[in-house]
Amino acid sequence: IVMTQSPATLSVSPGERATLSCRASQSVSSNLAWYQQKPGQPPRLLIYGASTRATGIPARFSGSGSGTEFTLTISSLQSEDFAVYYCQHYHKWPLTFGQGTKVEIK
Amino acid sequence: QVQLVQSGAEVKKPGASVKVSCKASGYTFTGYYLHWVRQAPGQGLEWMGRINPNSGATNYAQKFQGRFTMTKDTSISTAYMELRTLTSDDTAVYYCATDPAAGSYNWFDPWGQGTLVTVSS
Q: Is B73 helix (H, G, I), strand (E, B) or coil?
């Protein structure tokens, strides 16, 4: 299953809303996770089950979608949210990731 | 808290093998699947495989089958990955990561700090 994220780069001002997309080449049901990665750090789990926030993740992060179309929304960007975001399906083997969306400061 | 601590950076020549360790603490090592994911410089994430630390059963990404092996030593709560016949394309940061709880989930939380493997002549 190929995961395609768009856009590759998203320029957003602090306090603004960011909407990231992830598309699967075939249905993955709700078997989708989102991760945030900052330079020099491992990824951090944000969302699983397409829409369930992981422990400790702020409410400004929300996930939606099912089947082949998914969205990660950051409602009001904080300085610490500028990072690369990856989606990952876990519907079947092999597990695959999208190529990432970089959220940068506008 | 759950923690995964990986071994240090490695530099290998083409054709060589590398073995990376991942020591777990803060949870029952045998209860949670352990995955390996790699990230080439400036690139995205690539899942390599997972191991059941209890039974030793494994699932491998087809791309790596034949030159990639995952093992574990439950006496020291440590998992290992070995990649053989290295080429420059294997230069990457290698991460271990667990399922978030006992059972089979296949998303990853938490992750180890990563181990840089550089393949260069």
A: strand
**Mean pLDDT estimate for chain A:** 97
B79-119: per-residue pLDDT in tens?
Answer: 999 999 999 999 999 999 999 888 889 999 999 999 999 99
Mark yes or no for CB contact B100/A97 under 8 Å: no
Residues 6 or more apart from A61 whose CB is under 8 A from it? A34, A46, A47, A53, A72, A73, A74, A75
Q: Specify the pairing of strand B92-98 against strand A84-89.
A: unpaired
Distance in Å, alpha carbon of B74 to nearest chain A alpha carbon: 24
Yes or no, beta carbons of A97 and B113 under 8 Å apart: no
Q: What are A63's two structure tokens? A: 């996930």
Q: Tens of pLDDT along A64-79?
A: 999 999 999 999 999 9
Parallel, antiparallel or unpaired: strands B10-12 and B115-119: parallel
Which pLDDT score, from 0 to 100, does residue B103 have? 83
Residue among B44, B97, B109 minimizing CB distance to A54? B109
What is the arithmetic mean of pLDDT over B14-28? 96
CA distance A75 to A15: 8
Count of positions (residues) in chain B: 121
A34 close contact with B: CB closer than 8 A = no
